């Protein structure tokens, strides 16, 4: 997961796209990631 944040910080578009993907992965129906998985990580 940390490498995803490194990529997302490269530019504004990467950050915006990653945020959309992260919202999808954190969706309770998807269940791919939990809030614990991304705790302390920031864009």
Structure overview:
The chain is mostly helical. The chain is globular and about 30 Å long. 51% of the residues lie in helices and 0% in strands. The two termini are 12 Å apart. The chain has helices at residues 2-8, 12-26. It is built from 2 helices and no strands. It has one domain.
Q: Report helical residue fraction.
A: 40-55%
Distance between the termini: 12 Å
How many domains in all?
A: 1
Number of helices: 2
Short description:
By secondary structure, this protein is mainly alpha-helical. The protein has helices spanning 2-8, 12-26.
Write the layout of secondary structure elements.
Layout (H helix, E strand, L loop, with lengths): L1 H7 L3 H15 L17
Brief descriptors of the model:
43 residues, mainly alpha, 2 helices, 51% helix, globular
